[in-house]
């Protein structure tokens, strides 16, 4: 796909892009970082960019906690932090933006920030000029403003910083800065489907309050459900449409084939 784009085969590129999204979502997730980086190197891949961001707004740590985060392209970072549905606390977004900006300047270090010159702050401000407007400053608590934002107030416009401090002291204070709305919190919705045949075999003798499994956890269960339905956006434990039941536990029911088949045919 990336090769076809280089040869300006736009129609073929779009076809391959859509095919990947519709039929190979699991492969895209397994190769997510490479796909994410590549898709933002060429503006032809807008559908793929949207698919990646639709995934990341639900699972932002996939990119923010990645070792490759500091090498993320600016347009990719901006496209993500501007999303109203990014599921991350605003102060964390701010801290990650600062981390990314500092990483773009080898001569800057967060540990040595007390020794920064005015030129250092100007360099960081210029590097983050496309990111800073998308931070929801007025959704950050007063304590976090003092602990994490104040030390970098030089990179903010003076009027904005004054308004941030005013609001931190008095949330009802009238200010002139534009106040971006809070980011929306996504709620899990269950898709309509029949799952009775998948979960009718239950061992009633098992205590329903016991741990589901010592081998897999809820995240694994959600991933298995995603494989079953071949969904573009992976399920979470909250919106997993399937009900998984533990049929056999070796330490409790035995490790023999007979123990397994006895429970299966009950």
What does the overall shape look like?
A: elongated
Q: Helix count?
A: 14
Helix share, percent: 40-55%
Radius of gyration: 24 Å
| Sheet with most strands | none
Strand content: under 5%
How does this structure look, described?
The protein has helices at 2-6, 10-23, 25-30, 32-39, 46-56, 61-64, 74-81, 90-103, 118-127, 142-149, 158-169, 218-229, 250-253, 257-264. Helices cover 47% and strands 0% of the residues. The chain contains 14 helices and no strands. It is mainly alpha-helical and 266 residues long.
Brief characterization of the structure:
47% of the residues lie in helices and 0% in strands. It contains 14 helices and no strands.
Give a topology summary.
Blueprint: H1 2-6, H2 10-23, H3 25-30, H4 32-39, H5 46-56, H6 61-64, H7 74-81, H8 90-103, H9 118-127, H10 142-149, H11 158-169, H12 218-229, H13 250-253, H14 257-264
Helix pairs in contact: 4-5
Keyword list:
2 domains, 47% helix, disordered N terminus, mainly alpha, 266 residues
């Amino acid at each position: 796909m990336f090769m076809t784009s280089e040869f300006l085969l736009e129609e073929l590129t779009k076809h391959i892009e859509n095919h990947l999204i519709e039929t190979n979502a699991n492969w895209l997730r397994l190769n997510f970082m490479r796909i994410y980086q590549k898709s933002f190197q060429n503006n032809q891949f807008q559908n793929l960019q949207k698919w990646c961001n639709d995934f990341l707004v639900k699972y932002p740590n996939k990119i923010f906690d990645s070792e490759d985060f500091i090498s993320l392209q600016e347009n990719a970072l901006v496209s993500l932090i501007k999303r109203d549905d990014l599921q991350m606390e605003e102060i964390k977004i701010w801290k990650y933006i600062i981390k990314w900006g500092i990483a773009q300047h080898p001569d800057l270090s967060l540990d040595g920030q007390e020794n920064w010159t005015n030129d250092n702050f100007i360099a960081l401000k210029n590097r983050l000029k496309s990111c800073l407007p998308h931070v929801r400053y007025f959704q950050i608590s007063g304590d976090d403003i003092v602990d994490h934002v104040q030390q970098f107030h030089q990179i903010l416009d003076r009027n904005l910083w004054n308004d941030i401090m005013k609001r931190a002291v008095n949330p009802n204070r009238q200010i002139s800065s534009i106040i971006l709305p809070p980011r929306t919190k996504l709620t899990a919705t269950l898709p309509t489907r029949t799952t009775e045949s998948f979960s009718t075999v239950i061992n009633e003798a098992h205590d329903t309050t016991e741990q589901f499994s010592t081998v897999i956890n809820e995240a694994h269960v959600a991933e298995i459900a995603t494989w079953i339905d071949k969904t573009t956006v992976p399920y979470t434990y909250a919106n997993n449409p399937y009900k998984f039941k533990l049929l056999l536990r070796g330490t409790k029911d035995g490790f023999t084939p007979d123990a397994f088949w006895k429970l299966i045919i009950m």
